[in-house]
Amino acid sequence: MNAFDEDTLHAYVDGMLNETKRLEVDAWLAGHPDDAERVRAWIAQNQALHAAFDPVLNEPLPLELVRATRRQRPAISRLWRAAASMAVLAVTGLAGYGLGLRSAEPEIIARMPRDAALAHVVFSPEQRHPVEVDAAHAEHLVKWLSKRLGAQLAPPDFTAQGFELLGGRLLTGGNGPVAQFMYQSADQRRITLYVRRAAGGNADTSFRHARENGVEVFYWIDQDMGYALSGAIARAEMQRLADAAYRRIGR
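-> structure tokens emitted (251 positions)
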């Protein structure tokens, strides 16, 4: 049996194959553990996305929007845009935060804690393949991710805080590549550092905090780089780790 291309495997994950094709893919995955692992990761991503967004999608429509449908049509599109904006703010946990960043940056910054938390939820539970490149090849990992992001990366050392580097992986963001570094404590707790390019020329380095579905996220901008440290552990401990990361990155 020939290998299935990525489009077919994605269609399998999304439940879009007919019964015959689905059974063929089932048989293929049973004998090809690498493809089966990729499929399980995609399924986990889908489940994480549903967990993050279904509550918002299932909320009742705002009363004002319902009333607007009985009035003039032009008002509907404006209200839909307003409702969508509020939904995004609610999901990211940033409503009322008042980011006050430059107009070229809000979309990237507003998405960063949500995207970082989602990546943490998807990959931190993995036991066999939590990272693409492990800490034994840290030098290669840093060079590879630095090249892909177009910036010299320097993953912080959390040894003093009780967390050792496990390794990292390359992710994709809405506007380019993203690096994820994963750390683990002696009691098997994990944190992840999400690194991506932000809009150039921003010197804002102040911390911001968001809580995404039980994941604490501390994030900040340093020049043209964005950082987000995520973990399902106590906020006070996460803040100490974020403080340590901020002091060590790029210093």
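The beta strands are 133-134, 163-173, 176-185, 190-197, 208-212, 215-222, 225-231.
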